[in-house]
Amino acid sequence: MSYNRESVSDGEALSQLVDQIVHSLEMRHVFGITSMELFLTDSCNMDCSYCFERCRNTSRLMPLEMGKGAIAWFLSQRPVPIRRDILFFGGEPMLRSDDMFAMAEFARAAQPSPDRLGISVTTNGTILPDSAIDRFLETEMSVLISIDPGKKAHNEHRRFRNGKPTYDIVWRSLGKLARSGVRSSVRPTLYPGLLGDLEDFVCACVDIGATEIVLGPVYGVPWDSESLERLEEALTAVGRIYYKWLKEGRRIRIPTFDRYVAPSDGPRRGCSAGRSLVAIAPEGDLFGCAKCLTANGGKGIHCLGSISSWAIDQEQKQLLANCGTKQLEKCKSCTISHFCSGSCPAANHDSVGTSQEPPLAHCQIQHIFYRIAQSLF
Ligand code: SF4
Ligand code: SF4
Predict the structure, then answer these.
(1) What are the E-state strand segments in the chain?
(2) Does residue 230 contact residue 195 with C-beta atoms inside 8 Å?
(3) What is the tens place of the pLDDT at every residue in 339-375?
(4) String of b and e for 175-190 (b: at least 16 CB within 10 Å)?
(5) Nearest alpha-carbon partner for 176 in 130, 214, 207, 144
(6) Separation between Cα atoms, residue 40 and residue 80, nearest integer Å
(7) Which strand (E) or helix (H) includes residue 149?
(8) Which of 32, 135, 177, 231 is most exposed by smallest CB count within 10 Å?
């Protein structure tokens, strides 16, 4: 990336430049489907208060052969030499760990290079037998753990079905994964009034061995002015320390801030759903992403078709693409539309009832990111 160019050799600089060009093209979705999310199950052993799966009471399971078939299709698409990603999602995918690892082994046998094929799972971090560690290492999978910023914030929302708190278990899992050499990331949800000390939390995650922090503000709830102020302070502090780490050449990523420190990426052209990303539901329906699949009380929005034919419904795909800043009416008069990465059709739908209009909180938080980018990067 551009921030570290002074300290690398010519060969590395060239390789970074090629990566930047490819990444920039990916942002414009020119390579077709490069990421696929496999939704292995609706079931979960937790009952998080803000979970999109809460209103669903079904218990669907994706059959192993369906998962392998989807992976085979995915890997046969447009054999351009760029990185692809397979992501296991749920519910709690570790409830299906045997099938998940069988699918991962199938994919890894087809593409042994982790640089060419990323395989990862998003998990609540409460189910981690020792045998899983070996299989993560064997398949070169990475793990994204959902954990909120600090014990209080986490235990407020993220509890087992019997009401017991989960923070200590999840934190132990993160340490165990990182110490074992499994590439581990965390995804803290940022909720009004429950930001804890975000900067300390991010530093603690990095100290324990997490290599990526995916900050996820919740857009579907109202943020009062005090919570927004607190969010801005917290994100500014994290942005400042992230910039310092980057200048020191540390290999830590906070993707939320990356397009400010690598401006050659340019603005993302709307969301990836349906253009470079698809999600497969347990019964084989195709959606733009896992969040589209679980939106609308679990019924999903803008279903793109089914893996029985893999034909994509172009009208639904266009509706997803129409949520970019160039298309949405609300964005036409916005002062930061040149900067904003656009809205999330799934969050839009679940907040305001239509995928075609961003909720107020989304725009308020984009303005915060804009001010941070102006002041720090
Ligand atoms: S901040 Fe809101 S209105 Fe402005 S460009 Fe982004 S989504 Fe559109
Ligand atoms: S922006 Fe929303 S709809 Fe688009 S890929 Fe991301 S989560 Fe899915």
Answers:
(1) 35-41, 84-90, 117-123, 141-146, 184-187, 189-190, 212-213, 216-217, 277-280, 285-287, 305-306
(2) yes
(3) 887 889 999 999 999 999 999 999 999 999 999 988 8
(4) ebbbeeebbbbbebbb
(5) 130
(6) 27
(7) none
(8) 32
* CA–CA gap between residue 148 and residue 204 (Å, rounded): 12
Residue from 343, 344, 354, 368 to probe ligand 1 pocket by mutation (most atoms less than 8 Å from CB): 343
Q: The domain 32-377: what is its CATH number?
A: 3.20.20.70
Ligand 2 contacts CB of residue 291 (under 6 A): yes
- Each residue of 46-55: b (16+ CB within 10 Å) or e? bebeebbbee
Residue 69: exposure state from Cβ atoms within 10 A (0-12, 13-18, ≥19): middle
Tell me the pTM: 0.88
Mutate to test the pocket of ligand 1, among 271, 337, 356 (most ligand atoms within 8 A of CB): 337
Break the chain into its structural domains and give their ranges. 32-377
Tokens read off for 141: 């999978």
Q: How far is the CA of 31 from the centre of ligand 2 (A)?
A: 18
pLDDT digit string (tens) for 61-96? Answer: 999 999 999 999 999 986 666 889 999 999 999 999
